[in-house]
Amino acid sequence: MTDPGGGGAADDINAPDETDPNDGDEIDSADRDETGPTDREYVDRAIDLAEEAVETGNTPFGALLVLDGEIVAERRNETLTEDDLAAHPELTLARWAGRELAADERARCTMYASTEPCPMCATGIHYAGIGRVVFGVAGETLDALTGDVVSIPCAEVIRRADGDTAVEGPIAEAAAMDLHEAVYGES
Ligand SMILES: [Zn+2]
Q1: Whose CA is closest to 61, among 91, 32, 83, 95?
Q2: pLDDT: is 34 or 179 the higher one?
Q3: d(CA 12, CA 7)
Q4: Which of 55, 78, 90, 140 does the annotation list as catalytic?
Q5: How far apart (Å, rounded) are the C-alpha atoms in residues 134 and 4?
Q6: From ligand 1's centre to the CA of 24, what distance in Å?
Q7: What is the pLDDT of residues 74-98, one digit of tens each?
Q8: pLDDT digits (tens, 9 = 90+) for 133-142
């Protein structure tokens, strides 16, 4: 329903359903201009998933995929419990999308992540052709706490790949960092 809006590629595909021709302008722009409650709610859900990852013995990362206004998949980090260094939720979701969704659906997807996707995941997101990514806190900010983040910005990876994925964030820095500090920080 809410058009993800950001990505150029996604916009073309996503247009079909405009019922009112001219009159909806005010409502439309109001909906669109807010990076909005909706984005924030989804990122908050991703942070909840990150918290659940910790509860199951993993590090605090979570992500989900929204297609046409509905959550179609959610993942928690599983690097420790699966003994798999690539089991980041964003990469797992990108691979899932590659298997389960058509290319045009992937282009209409927004991935919400508790923390900015790392370069490995950003590349997977690009290969999957996900239309948009929104994240809670920047990798660089987490790196200041942990010192072990490969803090090449997700947007930079997409740009260098000449990709179409729109990247937005950080939009929930305090909430996302609260969790990281609880896990990594010393009090
Ligand atoms: Zn990653």
Answers
A1: 91
A2: 179
A3: 9
A4: 90
A5: 10
A6: 40
A7: 999 999 999 999 999 999 999 999 9
A8: 999 999 999 9
